Amino acid sequence: MEITLEQLAALTGGVILRGDPQTLLKGIAALREAGREDLSFFGNERYINDLRRTGAAAVLVPVNTPLDVCGSALVVCGNPSAAFAEVVRRFRTPPRQFRPGIHPAAVVHPSVKADPAKVCIGPCAVIEAGVEIGDGTEIGPGCVLGENAKIGRDCLFFSRVSIYHDCVLGDRVRLHSGAVIGSDGFGYEFIGGRHEKIDQVGIVQIDSDVEIGSNTTVDRARFGRTWIGEGCKIDNQVQIAHNVVLGRHVIVVAQAGIAGSSRVGDYTVIAAQVGIAGHLEVGPQITITAKAAVTRDISSKGVYAGHPVQLIRDHQRQQVLVRRLPELVERLRKVEDQGKF
Hints:
This protein is an alpha/beta fold. It has two domains: 3-91, MurE/MurF, N-terminal domain (Udp-n-acetylmuramoylalanyl-d-glutamate--2,6- Diaminopimelate Ligase, Chain: A, domain 1), CATH 3.40.1390.10; 101-315, Hexapeptide repeat proteins (UDP N-Acetylglucosamine Acyltransferase, domain 1, 3 Solenoid). Helix content is 15%, strand content 29%. The protein is built from five helices and 39 strands. Strands 8-10-13-16-19-24-27-30-33-36-38-39 form a twelve-stranded mixed β-sheet. A ten-stranded parallel β-sheet has the order 9-11-14-17-20-25-28-31-34-37, with no helix packed on it. A hairpin with a 4-residue loop joins strand 38 (302-305) and strand 39 (310-311). The longest helix is centred in the last third of the chain and has 13 residues, at 325-337. It starts with a strand and ends with a helix.
């Protein structure tokens, strides 16, 4: 990477707040590690001390950043994190290159619809009968695609991804190692003293531009579909149960779990270790903070927290009162000792 400060400002749509426009930048790094030829960015107030101490040649900063905050050259832009990501995309060495072809150690059923000159199927992958794979898609080592699964264009499945039969995936879907799409929903009826399995005959539909992390599981529907909407980003070790519907551009963070038949609206954020009970409706543009337990429908926009979940301001008030309990108990004891209670 070699880019001048002037070129950086043009690339990111920023304005040079301080520094020589011809300053040459040759690397990228975090504020703490950046050296005298590196570019970094400041996008979160909690890292203000790192900004003050950074050795970076230049830093992308938000509007209203004071000139004297550090000794680096400063470029002001609307979203420093996004601008930094654009620089990384422009200059990084591509982490992988698409090389079409079917590895000799892959097992591909003759009925599979895929152009060997336009797809990549890695070693030990198993592609079962009736599968359709769009051009530009890469299937990593050890992946298994079940019968009649349909995969869109330009998808990327890392090693050991499992996609069960009849699932439907859109374009540019990215699945990380160990993800399982379309395993049976967890459905049983207690009959005659035994848990009898209920057949799960639906599918999983994943729309375009979805990314799903390692060891996340998306269960097939009991009937109909479990549906992951366009642009959703799902972290590692998430459980999404049968017949769940996620709207467009939903974020689900690590170790969250969504029980069967619940629905989540567009642009909602579900933080780490959140639990959502079954058959609930969570509206659009809602944020649920870490470890919250959702046991009722939520329709109003806002930030929610706690167990059971409530608006975060109400939860915080309760937490203040809980922390005061020892003091309040001691005051009550003194009142009782004085015989005034």
